[in-house]
Design brief:
Blueprint: H1 19-41, H2 48-73, H3 81-97, H4 102-125, H5 131-150, E1 155-156, H6 160-167, E2 169-170, E3 173-174, H7 175-193, H8 195-205, H9 207-212, H10 217-243, E4 245-246, H11 254-264, H12 276-295, H13 300-325
Antiparallel strand pairs: 1-4, 2-3
Length: 326
Amino acid sequence: MEIQNIKLDKKSATFIVPNWCKRYGGILIGLIALLIFFSFKSPYFFTQDNLMNILLQVSIIAIAAFGMTYVLLLGEIDLSIGSIIAMVGTLAALSLSHELSLFSVIPLAILAALLLGMMNGLLSASLGIPSFIVTVATMGIFRGISSIFLDGASISIEHEGFIAIGNGEWFSIPIPIWIMIALLLVNHFILSKTVFGRKIYLTGGNKEAAIYSGIKVISLKIKVFMVMAAMAGTSGLILASRLNSAQANAGIGYELDAIAAAVLGGTSLSGGYGTVIGTFIGAIIIGVINNGMNLLNVPYFYQLIVKGVVILIAVYIDVQSKKRRT
């Protein structure tokens, strides 16, 4: 093989930056900075047990945020995530209390989540109602139904197999972390390697072009909301398992954390740009902030302020990134 000599002067010489570095470099630097900061502030932070605990805490939000990434890529939003989490946990607990087998309960719970997502998609896509309005409405509807099913109380779960989903371990690693990693890989493959994923990016980036190219936008939107609900349903099963109970107020505020994770990871609120890998990193950043502030005994209301500021910064970065791309 011949190697050609290439002469570079100062004007033509450029430093080639890998694509992954361009896309994730900023948030990785931010994550590393947070790890260093909290490591100096607390001797208990940078330990194997605590880092594993962060990943465990992050898993529920990260899985829901994977679904939120789909919705945001389409230029939509879903605020009913927390209520779907509560609804699925409720249905699973009630099914187990009626002595259904675990292998029946899990598919039925995910199927219920898919139907909830289909409802969101149909109301928004078919009736032309903005997804923000639809999911604000269904957020209350789904949580209200959960409260009715539970009669305003919580229901305990005693099924050992179900409890193991959120509390068991494989090779000394909590099962929710394995589930999170598996879904990260699956969703990354779907969005980056399949026709379905490319349709989502195209539609989110330019809806009119997608319609002219023959993409069935209404059908695509319904499917995306179903994927979102399936991810939220999975989070709901894990949360109910970890709590050993189903509660009508489960998952409150999770929609904001999911949005923050996706936007922090580089997903554009206007659609067409983002990855689940970035969302995963964004979720870890949120988990590190929450864990670090808890170790430093920061009061909860101050934590809310910090998370609000983080969301504002993420949105500002998104706006500036969009200007640069255009």
